[in-house]
Structure to design on (218 residues):
């Protein structure tokens, strides 16, 4: 969800204002995705590298995340959304960890949009943790397959993404699901995240619908 800081700067406001607007936009994008028939939506909220940002910005992001989990809890449940979080939770505050656990539990039986939030997430970190868990379980190296690794990732219960949308003109993966996106399609837009709307999402879906997906085949 790139472009919050630049969106705020264009308006003479601090970066934290942009993050707040970006957070509010998540709800609308979730509704738009479900309207278009999208069953799985993942947002990259905070990476393992984002801790390097100024402390006041990091603190604001964490406050926004906690507020989002609590303020939108009832609304997400009422909209039949299944909510999951991926990433290393051990570095998050106890309040955030508890809020995640409550929302995941309360939404576990919901059958609507499968909404995943990547928080303190990094693809390399995810794979590293998966390998450690496989080793700790004593799995024979000869028995390790792609399926073994996939089953130990944070996204084990979530399908690999068909489409990755990168906002604000950025064109790099930024450590986002390197394992899962092996055959994903990519869509790049200059739209900054707070301005991402139904029309932008439709444009991405139209582009995706024109792709020929061969997954390495002819």
């Amino acid at each position: 969800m790139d472009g919050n800081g630049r969106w705020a700067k264009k308006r003479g406001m601090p970066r934290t204002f942009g993050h707040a607007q970006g957070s509010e936009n998540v709800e609308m994008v979730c509704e738009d995705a479900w309207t278009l028939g999208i069953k799985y939506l993942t947002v990259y909220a905070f990476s393992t590298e984002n801790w390097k940002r100024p402390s006041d910005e990091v603190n604001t992001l964490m406050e926004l995340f906690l507020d989002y989990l609590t303020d939108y809890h009832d609304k997400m449940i009422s909209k039949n959304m299944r909510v999951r979080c991926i990433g290393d939770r051990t570095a998050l505050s106890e309040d955030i960890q508890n809020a995640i656990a409550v929302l995941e539990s309360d939404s576990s039986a919901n059958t609507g949009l499968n909404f995943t939030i990547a928080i303190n997430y990094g693809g390399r970190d995810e794979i590293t943790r998966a390998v450690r868990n496989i080793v700790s379980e004593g799995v024979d190296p000869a028995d390790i397959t792609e399926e073994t690794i996939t089953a130990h990732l944070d996204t084990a219960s979530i399908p690999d993404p068909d489409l990755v949308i990168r906002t604000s003109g950025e064109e790099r993966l930024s450590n986002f699901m390197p394992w899962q996106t092996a055959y994903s399609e990519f869509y790049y837009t200059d739209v900054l995240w707070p301005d991402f709307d139904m029309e932008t999402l439709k444009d991405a879906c139209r582009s995706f619908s024109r792709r020929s997906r061969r997954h390495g085949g002819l």
